[in-house]
Amino acid sequence: MPRSRCPRPALPVLRWLPRYSRAWLPLDLLAGLAVGLTTVPQALAYAELAGLPPQYGLYSSFMGCFVYCFLGTAKDVTLGPTAIMSLLVSSYAFHQPVYAVLLAFLSGCVQLAMGLLRLGFLLDFISCPVIKGFTSAASITISFNQIKNILGLQGIPRQFFLQVYETLRRIGETRAGDAVLGLSCLATLAGLRAMKSHLPQAAPAEPLAVRISYLIVWISATARNALVVLFAGLVAYSFQVRGSQPFRLTGSIPQGLPAFRPPRFSLAAPNGTVPFQSMVQPRRVVTGLTPTRSCWLWALPISWAPSSPRTPSRAALAGLDLVPLCVTFLLCFWEVQYGIVAGVLVSGVLLLYSIARPPIKVSEGAVLLVQPGSSLHFPAVEHLRDSVCSRALAAASPARSVVLDCSHVSSIDYTALLGLAELLQELRRHGLSLAFCGLQDPVLQVLLSADLEGFQHFRSWEEAEHCRGAEPGGSGAEPLTSTAESTGLIQ
What's the pLDDT band for 150 if we cut at 50, 70, 90? Predict the structure, then answer.
């Protein structure tokens, strides 16, 4: 009897945990320590970017990782708040954590529903120019948002253009201590990063002192974020002990974890209660990718860090691709979510235009060889009819029959079928014929089942031209001009 296959465990953790090796533990601990030392200061900064108290960034930095240990399938993914996600949250939360928590819950529900309904294909409609414009504008917005912190300015608006105006107007209020410390940290980070990229590999034959020095430099460059944060903290603490503080500090952070409870679906306000319907008004709702579980511990929405394709500039070089890129890029300075939606809509319009106006190649001769460049659907049928009639019945040249090469047409809908029937009748009224060649089997079956009057089809255009002598108006003597010699491209 054949052996029965063991069912795969439902939880991904049950797949890899039994095969875990003790030899991996030291490396995992080192990787976790490095990531943790980097994540903590980042989480504080992301909470500030979202306009929320810093503890909410800390909650979000570890809750998603704990859940992903049991449910995750990729070993190289770190979950937590990101700069772009924090920017999106800031447009909805308005410095109120209860809105951010509700956002985490609702966006998790949306993602869960999309997964169950298998709606992931909708992301295929977000083109590379939209992603490139979105990430470029967001990086500029996020970078400029940190300038006020480096300069020690407070009360700067969140909206990008107002933020630029207010920062430049109040540049004279810069706090010297914050500016010196911030710029020093930036210079140190840049130096350590450059040092790591140019650090030569220490050979095993090198003296022990050289190898230890290499290890110290490598660890310092790798953990540069944590080292800079520790250094800045020690500097601020030293001034605090001496009774002076030239820096704006984060302040005290509540200890412990928040209570484990569901998000609030209403909010108490001085003039009454804000109902759920008002909390999720369209002007506030922003959908993000986040595990629903994190909201039960009062955390921010989290996501994987978005990445751009390796060569997005190639796609952006095309004229049409430049349109959604520019629209997304410019509108993201107003609101990031508006830029993404606008870019997707523009990309969709361009996609629909390419369907409605497919390229049509026409080869001149005693007959017209017309070759659509893609499938025929209802938006394109009128364009095809006008193109064929304008060339076949042109006043400046004798009327000619038409051979429609459908080798690139893989599908056809009912409206396009009616349009072809009308084209057949119109050419027949002028004593001309319309023959089809290169029909793929699904398209041929549709045309045969429609029982079009005067329908003719051939395997190739050469066969159609050879049989043209029996057609009205055809002599059978003149061959088609080669496509390389005379080709018209109708858009």
Answer: confident
